[in-house]
Structure formats: structure tokens, C-alpha cells
Amino acid sequence: MSDALDARMGDFVREIGRALGLALDVDVERIEDGTRVRLAGDGSDVFLQRKAAGLDALQHVVNAAFRREHADGHIVVDSLDYRKGKDGELRESARILAQRARDTGEAQEIGPLNPYARRIVHLAVADMQGVSSESVGDAFLKTVLITASAE
Questions:
Q1: Structural domain of residue 49, as residue ranges?
Q2: Strand partners, 78
């Protein structure tokens, strides 16, 4: 991925902020599996209202605008490190449910989740032995089913 693409993503998000009357501080950083676009500054908390629906919408718009050029990973848009904290909580929940599935042999469900959250759960479960996960449902929001693997 190029520095020019990072700069364009940052400018794009700043321009959206300006259109909303916000003076956003935007930082684009590379992460293990893609790019994180971090928002801060006055008004950045507006994206966190209503269970971060604005942040989800902004992430959707940024992904739609840059997905073809950003083929080597995922784009994560975060405001005030909200998503970073929620991602950690989601990983921990997935691990607890995976352990419960392993211990009891009963399938465990988490969700409904959007595609971004489902990916976090699947990656957390993939790091564990003796369990697997799959998304079930036919809508945008799906449930992740965590089951013990036959060993």
C-alpha cells in the first residue's frame, strides 16, 4: 500500500468531516492486516452516538471509496479508539464462548453482528484449537455459531 493512498484516505475523511461541520484530526496508520483511519478532535464523538451507527456508516463509505485500490487488507475507521476497545471486548467474548463450546460440546451463538464484527470473531476463534465458527443467516447482520471441532 502506498503513502499516497494513505494520504488520499485521510483527505477523504477530513473532507467528510468538513462537510459535517467538524474539524477532525485524522491519522492513517498501517496495521497487521490493513489500515486504520483514526479520528480525534472536536466533534469526533458524534460518530459514536447511537451505538456508533455514524462510525459504521463512515467505515462503509470509506471502504466503498477505496476497496479496489486497497486490495492488500482491510480498512478500519475508528473514532477516539472506540472500535479498538470494542474489538478487544468482542475477541474476549469469542474466546469465552469458544471455551464454553469446547467444554460443554454445545454450540454457542454471538450476534447479530455486522461483517466487520463477524470477521473479528472468526479470527479470534481461528486462533483456538478444537473449535470452529461459521456465520449463519441471510441478512447484513448475521449470527456467528461457534462449535467444538471433532478431533
A1: 3-80
A2: 38
The CA distance from 5 to 28, in Å, is 10
Give Cα separations from 113 to 30, 54, 62, 70, 139 (angstroms). Answer: 25, 16, 19, 24, 10
By DSSP bridging, strand 131-136 and strand 108-113 are: unpaired
Total domains in the chain come to 2
Q: Do residue 20 and residue 49 come from a single domain?
A: yes
Which residues neighbour 34 within 8 Å (Cβ) at sequence distance 6 or greater?
Answer: 70, 72, 73, 74, 75, 76
Cis (ω within 30 of 0) for the bond into 115? Answer: no
Tens of each residue's pLDDT in the chain, 151 residues: 578 899 999 999 999 999 999 999 999 998 888 899 999 988 899 999 998 999 999 999 999 999 888 877 789 999 999 988 998 999 999 999 999 999 999 999 998 998 888 999 999 999 999 999 999 998 888 999 999 987 5
Where among 22, 51, 80 does a domain terminate? Answer: 80
**Residues 97, 64 share a domain:** no
